[in-house]
# Entry
Amino acid sequence: MTMAKRFCELQAHAPPNISGWPWLRAFRQQAQRAFAAQELPTLRQENWKYTNIRSLSETAFSDAPPPGAAELAQAENVQQTQALSLPGYRLTFIAGHFQPQLSQLETLSGAARLLPLKQAFEQEQALVENYLGSAMEYPGQPFAALNSARLEDGVLLYLPANCQLSQPIHCLFYTPSGPHSHVSYPRLLLMLEPGAQAQLIEEYLGDPVPPENAAAQFTCPLSEIILAHDAHLLHGKVLREGPQGHHIAGIHVSQAEQSHLHSISITLGGGICRNDLQVKLHARGAQVRLDGLYMLAGRQHLDNHLRIDHLQAGCRSEVLYKGIIDDRARGVFNGLAVVHPQAQQSDARQINKNLLLSENAEIDTKPELQIDADDVKCSHGATVGQLDKDALFYLGSRGMDQPTARALLTTAFALETLNPLSQGPLREQLAALTGTTLTRQAGGKPPATTSHS
Amino acid sequence: MLSIRNLGVRIDNKLILQGINLEVAAGEVHAIMGPNGSGKSTLAQTLAGHPDYQVSQGQVLYQGQDLLSLNVEQRAAAGIFLAFQYPVEIPGVSNIQFLKSALNCQRKQRGEPELDALDFITDVKQKMRQMQIDEALLYRGTNEGFSGGEKKSNEILQLLVLQPQLAILDETDSGLDIDALKRVAAGVNAFRSPERALILVTHYQRLLQYLVPDRVHVLQNGRIIRSGGAELALELEQQGYTTDTPSEDAPTQKREVPDDNG
Ligand SMILES: Nc1ncnc2c1ncn2[C@@H]1O[C@H](COP(=O)(O)OP(=O)(O)OP(=O)(O)O)[C@@H](O)[C@H]1O
Ligand SMILES: [Mg+2]
# Structure
């Protein structure tokens, strides 16, 4: 049975353990109707022009079962050897299932809450009911609707006014490879009340060396982020699925007055991957900085779609996405900043820069502005290029071999996206991850002694 | 040490060097002078191994081996160093990272162990003091936003750290103030030894007062049209390239006017 057909028969498959909550059942049914009302996207849709999900929609994905002992051991190994190692809280999921024994959670003081979503359905029903679905819309977002129709577990973070978490929250989603195609729908719900502050990192990992018979896997996460007045969130996303790991994710953000979001999105691997990042700046002084880095090789496909709505005056958005694309990989960048008529004194900047390391690598980039106010500062730009030949020669003339020189230049290009992060374990680890990925990529090339255009 | 025989070089199918002959022995200093566009940088870049410069004829022996069969990094590891006329900016790669990576790559190619990090940084800082380069430049992107003079001094810092055998300085003196010129000359003099050789590409006599050449060559239209002792540089400075050249087909060239900042 194909994805499309299967998804249209969803009601019958509603997991029994949460179908007992009438409000949740109603929520899922409504999402299911919204999903069924839209076609699965095809290349004919402007928003999906470069990302072909046909192979996905023709694969029969079944709900991922809870992990067995082998997967648990593998997850533990991946967590220790592959995942970011951050101080603070950690929630680990295997194929969407929460794993308390691989997690590091403590009860937060006062009204603050950090817990698996499934547990929150029981213990924090009022919070969930109040906020779930409040930062997103279904039209034009079929996978947000799909996640909502199928959601079972994930993460709930609620910080009351002025609650500031000093330690980061690390949410690790591990997708085991195997002979069967599975799908999971993690859901994250993050609410920061006025003056609250937090750092949360979503990390999606597959097996670094999948077995030969590995079947396609699919992860379809959705994060809702609600930032009240003067709330500050650092949101990180690291995507490192295996070549069979497909990933279509949404991050939907709603920002109030003076709130700050700094998002850093790093994609190092995966099959067909897409990030839809939607930010609504609802009130004066809201600021968002979206930084992104993608390093694609093999036949990876990554589509980053960003949309920022400046809905009121005096908001600021800044986007810097950089890509390094090798082999036959393909990147898509589409960034749209919409300045609505009331949004005077908006400041919207967008830059997308790309390095193509091979002749067959491809990037389709389209930074866009749609401005309906007159007193605004807006800019956007995109570049696509190769490594600077003069720089390569200069490094070579000082004795650096080609792989070293290329790795040095690509790493320098990439690390610019981490500059806004303050010094600390997160920045160090992201930098290290970037460095090893690029060194491995550069090392895999034959040493070129002549020109590299 | 270096033996260039009948070297012809083209770039984009345009013949630039047309039969250069030059012998440089260990311990010697050679100066190459000549009008703009005569091919001085082309010669320097060809010796360093720039892939865009195609050798159309001739051969180059360096310490007895065929230099032209080595790629750029192999030449560097074998001891060739080119101080660029226009040093390249490398944003995001700090000067210290650059130096360390370069030195360790060379050592690896020569089968030597990596340098101890502390010894390395101590050595670099001592040489920066010698060149009076601000230590802050160690942590900035290599040459990124450096002033013209800082870039040239930084080339000599690299020379001092990398300790090559044959250094080719392509107009390192251009754009330096008087004190910086003296420091560069002092740095290069510290580098000199009976085993090492130096090729100075310059337009001015001034540098040659501090680094007295054994031979001076005049390059014009891709050929060495004259060679002489140190006194030839002085003569050229006074009379220009055109007055006394034996080559009758040389086009008229304006005399070089020295920078007014020195
Ligand atoms: N990439 C290129 N394509 C075409 N011509 C080139 C290229 N590079 C150099 N040339 C030409 O080769 C000739 C020699 O250039 P070169 O840089 O070697 O001169 P130079 O003697 O170093 O001059 P200067 O004193 O101005 O530094 C010039 O006419 C220059 O225009
Ligand atoms: Mg020149």
Q: What stands out?
A: Confidence is low (pLDDT under 50) at residues 244-262 of chain B. The longest helix of chain B spans residues 95-109. The first strand of chain B starts at residue 2 and ends at 11.
